[in-house]
Amino acid sequence: MDTRKHFLIIGAGPAGLTAARELLRQGCTSVTIVEQEAQVGGISKTVHYKGNCIDLGGHRFFSKTDEIMNWWTAVLPVEDASRTEERENVFLLRHRLSRILYDRKYFSYPVTLSLDTLSKLGCKRLIKIGFSYLHARIRPIQPEQSLEDFFINRFGRELYKTFFRDYTQKVWGIACSKLSADWGAQRVKGLSVSGVLLHAARSLKRKLTRSRSTLAQKDVETSLIEHFLYPKYGPGSLWEEVARDVQAHGARLMLATRVTGLHLDAGGTTVTAISLRTQDGTEETLPCDAVISSMPLRELVAAVRGPVPARVAEVARGLVYRDFMTVGLVLRKNEQLSQLKDNWIYVQEPDVLMGRIQIFNNWSPWLVADRNCLLLGLEYFCTEGDTLWTMQDDDFIRMATSELEKIHLTGADDVLDAFVVRVPKAYPAYFGSYAHIHVLQDWLNGVHNLYPVGRNGMHRYNNMDHSMLSALRTVDCILRQTLPKKDIWLVNAEKEYHESK
């Protein structure tokens, strides 16, 4: 494709900004980015509150793909203690520690066969876990039709009930038996009891041989990595730097601007223009030669002005999203919380609604305005419009604080300040009409200059590096025509695809 043509990008999150930067690097001179929020970064943005910085969900900068690792470090350098200035934004090398809170006890994640774990579980439960795992290996559930089947086949029913079921049901709001096994293939991939044991053996070998800790962890399942990079001032600071860079190289960035229409030609195979509405109500229609979209698929199809098959519209309307809320708590340091070195904690406790706890001091101390305080993110999964989503902020903060007290982490008197952040469409769901997602994919493949990318753009629960890879492969497809458009859907769908390309 002629690099002089006009490329329009919907969304200034990781996928959209990656596509913009790559197009400009390849010599394209006309790039416009449209973002409905007033801030770049999408779900990877950093939320600021009185000098405190909240990371929505916790974003580890790690990828098995060298292309992505090199991309990140080309934007921000890795910290060098001998040269880094206090105010310079750099990547910090962080040690990963996440644990599971279950039965008011902390278990390593992934679960290890340490004496600590064995003593906390007790003999009776250990025997049940062992026998249920053996049963799953001897008589696996075939075919795997649900996420519950996926977990039981890899961990056994008892271990699944102990460490996976309740948290996963908090995330999605429905039973694991009603979720597609595709979610497990997407997020858990090769994680299993045997994988955990192999990882433990490799870790022990590294310690015995005093191997130096690096980011070279390509033989490690992503859920098991021990180190990762993290921007000193939060993940949004990297995407803000990318936004400045693409604008400096000629891209037009339109913030607080909504897409109100995608205009198709009479044949329904080409996007000819996009209609926009800015925050002040100004309407604008931009002609375009190619559109790269990270807009949620449900909204994308609803915005099309032109012929859309009835079945495509039906599947798009049936796509479901799970939303997200976090309570940022500024706390007086206490002995209990100060001892926790976790980046985040999975709350596998059925008597609280809280799903996860982020301890932002342990991600980067520069996220916290007052180093004498602790900054926590208490995460809740919900659906836009439900009881949690519509709860008044003060009531939500009181509920979250009481739950933190209930699990014995702090008291209300330790809370110095609090705020609430709502994130719509944080998680594309693997239920609703998802089983028929191929109908949408086939139709989108037929609109030759419309390219969906990223988590919501592809309705796939991607990690950040996979969203970026989908954008990079899309630019390859547009400019170099080195792969068919339909193959972009394989990013993070086939393990070999993104690890070998």
Overall description:
This protein starts with 5 loop residues before the first strand and ends with a helix. A hairpin with a 2-residue loop joins strand 6 (98-102) and strand 7. It has 19 helices and 20 strands. The strands form five sheets. It has a seven-stranded mixed β-sheet with strand order 7-6-16-17-18-15-19. 42% of the residues are buried. With 501 residues, the chain is of the alpha/beta class. It comes from Candidatus Desulfovibrio intestinipullorum.
Q: Give the overall silhouette.
A: globular
> Which class do the helix and strand fractions yield?
alpha/beta
Low-confidence stretches: 494-501
Q: Helical residue percent? A: 25-40%
Cα-based radius of gyration, to the nearest Å: 23 Å
Number of strands: 20
Describe the largest sheet. 7 strands, mixed
Oligomer: single chain
Through-space gap between termini:
22 Å
Strand percentage: 15-25%
By DSSP (H or I, 4+ residues per run), the number of helices equals: 19
GO molecular function: flavin adenine dinucleotide binding; oxidoreductase activity; UDP-galactopyranose mutase activity
GO cellular component, one term: cytosol
Domain Amine oxidase: 15-442
InterPro entries: Amino_oxidase (IPR002937), FAD/NAD-bd_sf (IPR036188)
